From TrEMBL:
<keyword id="KW-0597">Phosphoprotein</keyword>
<dbReference type="Pfam" id="PF04969">
    <property type="entry name" value="CS"/>
</dbReference>
<keyword id="KW-0158">Chromosome</keyword>
<keyword id="KW-0206">Cytoskeleton</keyword>
<dbReference type="GO" id="GO:0000922">
    <property type="term" value="C:spindle pole"/>
</dbReference>
<dbReference type="InterPro" id="IPR008978">
    <property type="entry name" value="HSP20-like_chaperone"/>
</dbReference>
<dbReference type="GO" id="GO:0051082">
    <property type="term" value="F:unfolded protein binding"/>
</dbReference>
<protein>
    <recommendedName>
        <fullName>NudC domain-containing protein 2</fullName>
    </recommendedName>
</protein>
<dbReference type="InterPro" id="IPR037902">
    <property type="entry name" value="p23_NUDCD2"/>
</dbReference>
<dbReference type="InterPro" id="IPR007052">
    <property type="entry name" value="CS_dom"/>
</dbReference>
<keyword id="KW-0007">Acetylation</keyword>
<dbReference type="GO" id="GO:0005813">
    <property type="term" value="C:centrosome"/>
</dbReference>
<feature type="domain" description="CS">
    <location>
        <begin position="14"/>
        <end position="104"/>
    </location>
</feature>
<comment type="subunit">
    <text>Interacts with LIS1.</text>
</comment>
<dbReference type="GO" id="GO:0006457">
    <property type="term" value="P:protein folding"/>
</dbReference>
<comment type="function">
    <text>May regulate the LIS1/dynein pathway by stabilizing LIS1 with Hsp90 chaperone.</text>
</comment>
<feature type="region of interest" description="Disordered">
    <location>
        <begin position="138"/>
        <end position="157"/>
    </location>
</feature>
Length: 157
């Protein structure tokens, strides 16, 4: 079995003071560096449809209103190697045109170049889903790919 598109094509991360975040068509991934030796019992994480709150040993690391809505009961967090918290949020709107430009409504925005690269990746991921027999993981895209790129759904197959 081949690797999913997002694994073959790499990620387009947006760096933050506490770690990084990135996205696919369906999910938003958040990686938060925490002090080495952190235990799961030290972590307090609340994931709601439009809100996130993360604290370690009582110190707030991330808190606020998410850029867009997520599926509340499908959000998860894990503690890896006792030094990295990985949060996975399932987007409610899983359209290629739904490229989050920031993690929170007014914080952790991707710079314009990173936003452009994120949108390119989501558009290629959309093309991969629509054409499962082709491999778009190494493809380059140019032209109008904003808002998910051109809509070919009306073309005759």
């Amino acid at each position: 079995m081949s690797a999913p598109f997002e694994e073959r094509s790499g990620v387009v991360p947006c760096g933050t003071p506490w770690g990084r975040w990135y996205q696919t068509l369906e999910e938003v991934f958040i990686e938060v560096r925490v002090p080495p030796g952190t235990r799961a019992k030290d972590v307090s994480c609340s994931l709601r449809s439009r809100h996130i709150a993360l604290a370690v040993r009582g110190q707030e690391l991330l808190q606020g209103k998410l850029f867009d809505s997520t599926v509340t009961d499908e959000g998860t967090w894990t503690l890896e190697d006792r030094q990295l918290i990985r949060i996975v949020l399932m987007k409610t709107n899983r359209d290629a045109g739904n490229c989050w430009t920031s993690l929170l409504e007014n914080e952790y925005a991707a710079d314009p170049w990173v936003q452009d690269q994120m949108q390119r990746k989501l558009t290629l991921e959309r093309f991969q889903r629509e054409n499962p027999g082709f491999d778009f993981s190494g493809a380059e895209i140019s032209g109008n790919y904003s808002k998910g790129g051109p809509d070919f759904s009306s073309l005759e197959k």
